[in-house]
Amino acid sequence: MPLSASLARGVAPTTPGTLHARTVTGDLSAPPRPGLTVCFGRGEKPDVDLGVGVDDLRVSRRHGELTYRQGQWWLRNTGRQLVRLPRGTMMHLSTEPIPLDTGYTPLFVKGSGYREHLVELYVAGHDDQGPVSRRRAETLRPEIWALDDDERLLLVVLGQRYLLYEEDPRPLTYATAAKQLSYLRPGAGWNERKIEYRIEAVRRRLRNTGFRYPLMHDKSQGRPADNGLLHNLLKGLVESTTLVPPDLDLIEDDDLWPDPAPES
C-alpha cells in the first residue's frame, strides 16, 4: 500500500507504532498498518516518500525502506552504499531487514567522501505523543563516572592521545605509562603490574553502570586483541567528558621525557 494513500485516511499521532521520520529536506508520519512501506532516498515522489542526500550521487534514488509487519517497522537497505546504525551496526544491500525498537533511532546513509546523511526515525510507544519539543527544558548533565585521584592520573597518562582528540587514538603501553608515572609520582611504586591491576579494577567497577562500551572479556569470544578493552574504557570516559582536555594539566609539569613515540 503506498504511503500517500494510507496517510489520506489519517492517523492519530498517539497511535502506538506510528513512525515519524525526518531528514534535512522533509519529514513524515506513517501509521502502523500491516504491509505499509515507507521509502527514502535521493529520488523524487512517487518513487520515494522521504528525500535524503538529494544532491549526492553516491546516495541511491531509492536507498532504503521501512515496512510494517509482525507488529514492528523493519528497515532494509536497498541502496548501493552502506547504512550505519547506532553501536556501529552496518547494513549492506544483502543484509537481512532489521526491526526498529520503540523510540528514537538515527541512521546514516554513506555518501560522497566523508559525507553521511542523517535519517531520524522515531517509533511511538503506548501513551507516547511522539517527538516533543523541549527547547525550554533544562539541559541534562553528561553521565560522569567517579574516579579517585590516582585513577584519574593513570587514565590521563594512558589516554593522553584521546584527550588531544587525535584521529584514531591508541593508549600508551603500560611500560611507557609506568616510566612517565615514575617521574610524576616518584616513590608511588607505579609499574606495569600495578597499572594492569588498577585498570582492571576500574573496568570491573564500571561494567554494570550503563557504560557505553564493553569493559570485560567475553569468554566465549576469546581475549580481544589490540588492547581493545582499555581502548573502550578511555574512549567512553572521554566521550562522556569524565576525562577532559584540562586534565592534561596533571602531566604538563613534566619536561623530563619527549612526547611518546607512536606505538603499534
Helix and strand pattern: HEEEEEEEEEEEHHHHH
Overall pLDDT level: 87
In CATH terms, what is the fold-level topology of the largest domain? Tumour Suppressor Smad4
Shape: elongated
As a percent range, the share of strand residues is 15-25%
When the domains are counted, the total is 2
The counted number of beta strands is 11
Compute the gyration radius: what is it?
24 Å
Largest sheet: 6 strands, antiparallel
- Side-by-side strand order of the widest sheet: 2-1-11-10-7-8
Low-pLDDT residue spans: 1-13, 254-258
CATH architecture of the largest domain: Sandwich
Structural class: alpha+beta
Region (Disordered): 1-28
Domain FHA: 38-90
Protein name: FHA domain-containing protein
Keywords: Phosphoprotein
Report what the structure shows.
This protein is α+β, with helices and mostly antiparallel strands and 264 residues long. It has two domains: 3-123, Tumour Suppressor Smad4 (Sandwich), CATH 2.60.200; 149-251, no CATH class. The chain has helices spanning 3-8, 149-158, 160-163, 174-184, 192-206, 228-239, and strands at residues 19-23, 26-30, 37-41, 50-51, 64-69, 72-77, 83-84, 90-91, 98-99, 103-110, 116-123. The strands form two sheets. Strands 2-1-11-10-7-8 form a six-stranded antiparallel β-sheet. Strands 4-3-5-6-9 form a five-stranded mixed β-sheet, with no helix packed on it. Helix 2 (149-158) packs across helix 4 (174-184). The longest helix has 15 residues, at 192-206. The radius of gyration is 24 Å and the shape is elongated. The N and C termini lie far apart (55 Å). Mean pLDDT is 87; it is low at 1-13 and 254-258.
